[in-house]
Amino acid sequence: MLEKLRKKIKEIIAREKIPDAEVEIRAKPLSPEEAIGNPEHEDYPLLKGRERLMEARFRDSRGVAFSDMFGNFNSTLSEILNMELKNNFRRAIFVATINAVLRELKFVENTIHCRNEDLIICAGKLYGFIAENFGNPKIFLCGLQPRFAETLSSHFTTKITDMDAANFGKTFTGVKVESPDKTEEYIEWCDLIFATGSTFVNNTARELIESGKKTVFYGVTGAGPCFLLNLKRYCPCSK
Q1: How many helices (H) and strands (E) does the chain have?
Q2: Residues contacting residue 36 through CB under 8 Å, at least 6 positions apart
Q3: Residue 22: partners with Cβ closer than 8 Å, 6 or more residues away
């Protein structure tokens, strides 16, 4: 999946004739306040310190990607697009760069995370989005976003997994968060996969996409990957 993304973004860069000599990618982790402001709830992964948004800047545009491995990184566009994607840190830089480049080239919008009360507004729009597009599906929420978990488990038959062991056993309207060991079972069970775009960074998106199940990726991380792979994304309040 990552190699497919690499191939497609390289084709666009070649077609747009972007000279590598003029391009420098600056990537850094954003603080929680820089990323999402001061939302009402304190249970988002960014506020717990386990993840950060890695931000890449390309010319006048910014793109971000969630990662549990983060730090500063400066390089050229070609070096980033050709580097070995061996861990979450490098994959986050790669995805954030794709998002920034595609935004600068006006292929995508909504690459900057929503802030403050917009996180609640986003969750409030979710029921209508699901009902209008998919009816009343059984939903596999892959990657815990607490407000989404509350909304989905209140209105639909839902199962949830997360990568963070600290979330295992938490419940939302009686639905327990399970480990990724349940992924295969829940894919088979569900009608709709609603997955975090972070799966492109932790390298688990392929299993979801190739399952053949209807799949929607949520959040800013998936902006570029969803465009390149023609996948559906939910991220109504991002900028």
Answers
A1: 10, 11
A2: 44, 46, 47, 113, 114, 115, 116, 119
A3: none
Q: How far is CA 117 from the centre of its chain?
A: 20
**DSSP three-state, residue 25:** strand
Q: Where are the domains of the chain?
A: 2-104, 118-234
* Residue 67, pLDDT above cutoff 60: yes
Q: Please report, rounded to a whole number, the percentage of residues in the chain having pLDDT higher than 90.
A: 59
What is 118-234's CATH number, 1.25.40.340, 2.30.42.10, 3.40.50.11590, 3.40.630.30?
3.40.50.11590
CA distance 198 to 222: 7
pLDDT, one tens digit per residue, over 76-132 is: 888 899 999 999 999 999 999 999 999 999 999 988 887 767 778 888 999 999 999
Give the per-residue pLDDT at 25. Answer: 64
